[in-house]
Write a structure and sequence with these properties.
The chain has helices at residues 2-28, 154-163, 169-173, 214-229, 249-258, 292-301, 304-307, 317-346, 383-389, 392-415, and strands spanning 45-54, 58-65, 72-76, 81-87, 89-91, 104-113, 116-123, 127-136, 143-151, 190-196, 235-239, 263-268, 280-285, 352-360, 372-376. The chain is built from 10 helices and 15 strands.
């Protein structure tokens, strides 16, 4: 199914590319009106072209839209980033057209939710937009967003961050009021939150051969696992995300807690510099990493909010310590038990890396009252693993083995009065 979806996606992409070329040709010939009134209000904007020029003193970004975009700009520190928020937008230009250069060391863009999109410009130092405006295209082909960035000193950047006004302070503070209401479970059901890692603007890792995005792989596995778990009597599995949307790490945790989940399983398929490493790995939380591989992975995964341009709101040290202590006291033993159950299911069935149970300080595993694991199903940096990750039959096999692991874990908890 996943391969068929890929083929369909590629076909759709070709059709979309052709449609854009036709659109551009019609616009160039002034045969197609582009007034906002001619487009359905609910249709996303189309960003059909982009370019970036400049150096490490001043850099300009220009993005072409099919109609006039509304936008807002905010600044975030640690590290310095410029966030450009847009209404729902389809980004139809090649990624290479907006490759980072000049004052920008990383540029991300994509969907945040059904109604919004975002561009996150990670800068090489303190930078401000000397110009940010929308202007009509001279040839009548819609509108363009022009962003001119220039260097400033740290004090000036800090003042920008301090004095800016967010239209939604909940966004800046990373609150979770927009989380949907908990799903209803039957009395006595054992609830499991299945978390598809990454999503929306946060694409995750990229496949070495097919260039498949990790967010697609994890969502396909999450849906397969949820469907399989829900066939078991007394088990109710829920998804933290059901489509290509961004969720902050705290939102994922809160969804599990609000649904009174008895387990939280976060699915990932990372990449490594060592392309010969392959196989599954199960991670649990710890304030000290078991090894450098675990530490590096936790550091990358914990940057998810930063990638999406979320303002990091640091908890007071005493609160962070209490949360981690609660996690360790109340749930760490259960998390380890689940990890061991998963690895027992995988034994002689699924390849694993050396020392397949590892631990580190993953923020997504910090629910103080929900036993949690992060499962690296395989590595998209390894060609053989990548083939398996895209194989529907193998995905079904993993879902079945994980379901067996959950059932054994549940039986053990019930036997001990849990």
């Amino acid at each position: 199914m996943f391969k068929r979806a890929q083929i369909a996606a590629k076909s759709a992409a070709r059709r979309s590319t052709f449609a854009r070329r036709v659109l551009a040709a019609l616009l160039a010939a002034s045969l197609l009106p582009v007034a906002a009134s001619s487009v359905e209000a609910g249709d996303p904007l189309l960003a059909y072209g982009a370019r970036i020029v400049g150096d490490d003193a001043r850099t300009r970004i220009v993005i072409d839209f099919d109609r006039e975009p509304r936008f807002s700009v905010h600044y975030i520190a640690n590290p310095e980033r410029i966030v450009v928020d847009l209404p729902a937008t389809a980004f139809g230009f090649p990624a290479k057209d907006l490759a980072a250069r000049g004052l920008f060391k990383d540029i991300r863009y994509g969907k945040m939710d059904e109604e919004s999109a975002r561009i996150v410009l990670t800068t090489a130092g303190p930078v401000k937009l000397a110009l940010a405006k929308v202007q009509a295209d001279e040839a009548g082909k819609g509108h363009r967003l022009v962003l001119d960035a220039e260097m400033i000193d740290k004090r000036a950047f800090a003042e920008l961050v301090k004095t800016q006004s967010w239209s939604d302070r909940g966004e800046a503070a990373q609150t979770t009021s927009a989380i949907p209401a908990p799903e209803k479970a039957a009395p006595g059901d054992f609830v499991i939150a299945v978390d598809a890692g990454h999503g929306g603007i946060d694409t995750g890792a990229i496949g070495v051969d097919t260039k498949t995005e990790e967010k697609q792989v994890t969502l396909a596995f999450a849906k397969a696992l949820t469907d399989r778990l829900n066939k078991e009597p007394g088990i109710k599995a829920i998804l933290t995300r059901e489509d290509d949307e961004f969720l902050s790490l705290s939102q994922r945790v809160l969804i599990a807690r609000q649904n009174h989940a008895g387990l939280f399983i976060s699915l990932h398929a990372d990449t490594l510099k060592q392309k010969d490493i392959r196989g599954a790995t199960v991670y649990t939380i710890s304030d000290k990493a078991s090894d450098k591989l675990a530490a590096d992975l936790a550091e990358r995964e914990n940057l998810s909010d930063q990638i999406a341009g979320k303002e990091t709101v640091a908890e007071p040290p005493e609160v962070a310590d209490i949360l981690l202590d609660l996690t360790r006291r109340e749930t760490q033993a259960f998390s380890i038990s689940l990890a061991e159950s998963v690895l027992n299911s995988f034994k002689d069935q699924v390849g694993t890396i050396n020392n397949p149970h590892r631990h580190a300080g993953f923020r997504v595993l910090q629910a103080p009252d929900v036993p949690s694991i992060l499962l690296e199903i395989g590595f998209l940096s390894n060609a053989e693993d990548e083939k398996l990750l895209l194989d529907e039959a193998w995905r079904g096999k993993i879902a079945g083995l994980l379901t067996d692991a959950v059932k054994r874990y549940r039986a053990a908890v019930m036997a001990n009065g849990g």
